[in-house]
C-alpha cells in the first residue's frame, strides 16, 4: 500500500457516498485514521451501520453521517450544506440559480443510455422467438454510440458519459445475446453534420476537418447489421475511414494492461462464465 501524506497541516474533509458498508466503510475508517474529517453519505436504512462506524472511530467529532439519496439533487445539496454546518469546510451558498438541478443533462443520459437499454432488452426478448437465419442468428441489434463513447475531449459530460455507457452496454450484453442467438453490435460515428452539430458545423468545415455524411453512416449501420460475422463488434465511422475497433482493443489487452493484470481479468471473466453470470446480492433495507 502506498504512503498517505496530507498535503497541508490542516485536516482534509472526505465525503464517501455509500460509506456505511463494504469498501466505502473501510475508506471512511482509513481516511479518519490519517486525520481527516469524514462524512458518511448513505440511505436511511444504513443509518445504524453508519452510526456504528462513527462510534468505533477514535474521534467522533471528526465524523458525520448524513442521510442521502445521491440520485436526488436537493438531497445532495443538503449533504454539502450539512457538511458546512458541521464546520468541516466552508463555501459560499449559491442562490443565483447556477447550481440548479441539471435536468437537461439527465434527459440526455435517459435518451442515449436508458433508451438504449430499454430497446435492447425488449428487442432481444422479441427476437429470441424468431426462426434462426441460415447463419444461426435470430436477430440483429445495432446500438449507436459515438467516437465520444471512446474519447472524452469535447467535455460534454452528459453526452460523453451516456455514449461510454452504450459501449459498456454492448459489451455487457454479449453473453446473453449469444445465448439467445441475437447479434449485438455498435456503430460509433465521428462528426456527422446533423441538427445537434449546427452550433459548430460551419467552423468545423472551415477548419478542413473530415466529416461523415448521414448516408455513409446509414450504409455502415445496414452493413454491420446484416454481416453474419459481426458479433460484439464496434464499427467506427470517421469520414472515409470505417474500422472495427473492439476486436483490436481485445487483441491489445495485454499490451494495454500488462500481461499479469490481463491474465487476472481473463480468469475473472472465466469465473463468471462458469457461474453462468453475475449473481446479484439480495436487496438491502
UniProtKB/TrEMBL annotation:
Pfam families: adh_short_C2 (PF13561). Keywords: Oxidoreductase. GO terms for molecular function: oxidoreductase activity. The keyword Oxidoreductase applies. Transmembrane segments: none annotated. Belongs to the short-chain dehydrogenases/reductases (SDR) family. PANTHER family: 3-OXOACYL-(ACYL-CARRIER-PROTEIN) REDUCTASE (AFU_ORTHOLOGUE AFUA_6G11210) (PTHR43180), SHORT-CHAIN DEHYDROGENASE_REDUCTASE FAMILY PROTEIN (PTHR43180:SF66). This is NAD(P)-binding protein. It comes from Didymella pomorum.
Amino acid at each position: 500500500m502506498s504512503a498517505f501524506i496530507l498535503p497541508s497541516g490542516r485536516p482534509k474533509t472526505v465525503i464517501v457516498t455509500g460509506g456505511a458498508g463494504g469498501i466505502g466503510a473501510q475508506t471512511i475508517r482509513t481516511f479518519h485514521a490519517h486525520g481527516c474529517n469524514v462524512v458518511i453519505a448513505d440511505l436511511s436504512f444504513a443509518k445504524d451501520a453508519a452510526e456504528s462506524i462513527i462510534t468505533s472511530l477514535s474521534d467522533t467529532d471528526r465524523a458525520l453521517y448524513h442521510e442521502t439519496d445521491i440520485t436526488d439533487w436537493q438531497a445532495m445539496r443538503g449533504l454539502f450544506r450539512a457538511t458546512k454546518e458541521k464546520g468541516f469546510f466552508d463555501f459560499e451558498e449559491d442562490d443565483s440559480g447556477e447550481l440548479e438541478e441539471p435536468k437537461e443533462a439527465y434527459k440526455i443520459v435517459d435518451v442515449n443510455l436508458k433508451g438504449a437499454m430499454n430497446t435492447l432488452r425488449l428487442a432481444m426478448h422479441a427476437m429470441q422467438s424468431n426462426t434462426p437465419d441460415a447463419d444461426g442468428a435470430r436477430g440483429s441489434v445495432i446500438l449507436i454510440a459515438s467516437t465520444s463513447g471512446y474519447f472524452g475531449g469535447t467535455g460534454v459530460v452528459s453526452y460523453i458519459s451516456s455514449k461510454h455507457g452504450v459501449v459498456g452496454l454492448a459489451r455487457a450484453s454479449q453473453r446473453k445475446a449469444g445465448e439467445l442467438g441475437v447479434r449485438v453490435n455498435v456503430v460509433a460515428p465521428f462528426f456527422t453534420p446533423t441538427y445537434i452539430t449546427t452550433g459548430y458545423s460551419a467552423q468545423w468545415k472551415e477548419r478542413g476537418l473530415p466529416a461523415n455524411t448521414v448516408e455513409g453512416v446509414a450504409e455502415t449501420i445496414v452493413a454491420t447489421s446484416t454481416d453474419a460475422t459481426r458479433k460484439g463488434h464496434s464499427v467506427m465511422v470517421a469520414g472515409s475511414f470505417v474500422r472495427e475497433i473492439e476486436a483490436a482493443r481485445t487483441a491489445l489487452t495485454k499490451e494495454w494492461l500488462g500481461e499479469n493484470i490481463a491474465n487476472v481479468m481473463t480468469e475473472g471473466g472465466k469465473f463468471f462464465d462458469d457461474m453462468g453470470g453475475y449473481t446479484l446480492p439480495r436487496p438491502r433495507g
